Amino acid sequence: MDAAAAAAGATATATADLTSSPLLSHSSPLGFGFYFLPFATIICFLIPVLYIFPPIPATTSDALRATHTKIGLSPPKSNLKDQFSPAHAAAANAAAAAAASDVPAAKLHALYIYPIKSCRGIELSKSKLLPTGLEFDRLYTFAQLKSAFPVSAADSEETKDRHSWEFITQRQFPLLATVKVDVYVPDATKRTAFVEQHSDGGSGGDAWIVFRFPWQDRGFRGVMQLLAAKIRDGWRAEPEREVLLPVGFPTPEEIEARGYEVEDVRIWKEWVPALNMGKEIPNELSLYLGVSNKLTIFRSDPDKLREVHRCAPRKEETGYQPIVGFQDAYPLHLMNLTSLRDFDSKVPKDENLQNLDVRRFRSNLIVSGAPAYDEESWKHVTFTQGSSKTTHPAGFQVSCRTVRCKLPNVDPATGVRHAVEPDRSLRKLREVDEGAPHMGCLGMQLCPLFDGTDRVEHMQGWLEVGMAVDVEQRGEHLYIKQ
């Protein structure tokens, strides 16, 4: 009994000691590692999951990428990375030396299209050539509703109330330069159940244009938009609003269903019937661009294109009368990098203008290797294979010089307009055409030529970077005003 009692007492004493031990006390704090390790484990698991499957809604572009391919060179790829290189001057000197031997030295250096007039362009390595210029070029234009001004007291009420649509460009609204544009074409190699359905019921079987502009809503919604943009596109990304437009001209059924209307829009001095698709334009775009009047977007009507005359060739010479969509005047615009670099060297610089990017001049064809201003003597040129893979040549009538407005004052990267340059220097140094007094000229206007058919719908060719420029005829140019 004494032994049992002693054992029981010892057990009770040990239990009391353990209970009073700091290791088992309920008031003992847990170490930092107890909380940190589970937290770190969860974070390390979530980061790659969120990176691969971000918890953000799919954009229109995301949906199109499932069934379509975006055309053009994706940054940082570009054939214009060397546009400021002194090597262009050396190449031009070599071209001048080679001119005596009739060896084509100039080449097609870069290609650009502008699906929406005055918005950011798309750089291509190859493009289909049509009577209207490069495929997808200037299909759309923004326009604002303007009233008759000024009016007098003697004018009728009808005149005072008259409104009309006029196209807009970076000259009035420089932020158009920051409106990005992409073209998506169907890709038969992509097979997926995730097919973008347009709001009118159309499927992903057609080509589409997506334009986007910076926009962030106020409040919590805007914060979430900013967060989603940075998760999707990187830390420097900003929220954008996307708008989907068809490349093809809508059918009569689609026009009626969407409430589109055929109206006249003014392009410089011409009134052009086109399809008003303003119902697709969000109000935020007007606020972003600073357009106080009513804003809309027009699609050029392929059956009501503008004929080009003035300096363009006649139908008797080419088999068709040159036509354009929403281009200013002629189907194609060409710039010579050597000419631009020579002119750029004479333009005064300041903190807001360090050099002249060729993209300020919104040309379709950018050539290199020709002497400065040599293009101003070209009358007929043929683009041949050169270092490209395109074997069929493409011929052009060089119609006239390009008379410049103030649009090149806008920086194409930022949408910031310089107060005076290069417009002032163009008028001072490049008043070279008797048909355009007091105006600066830089670049040339072209009309494509097609052999083997006189039916416009069958006329097409190809242009590719690297093609050689063969000058077949030279002569003088005299600009004819509109």
TrEMBL record:
The keyword Endoplasmic reticulum does not apply. One of its GO terms (molecular function) is catalytic activity. Residues 303-472 form the MOSC domain. Keywords: Membrane, Transmembrane, Transmembrane helix. It comes from the Eukaryota. SUPFAM superfamilies: PK beta-barrel domain-like (SSF50800). The chain crosses the membrane at residues 32-53. Pfam families: MOSC, MOSC_N. This is Mitochondrial amidoxime reducing component 2. It comes from Colletotrichum sidae. The gene is Marc2.
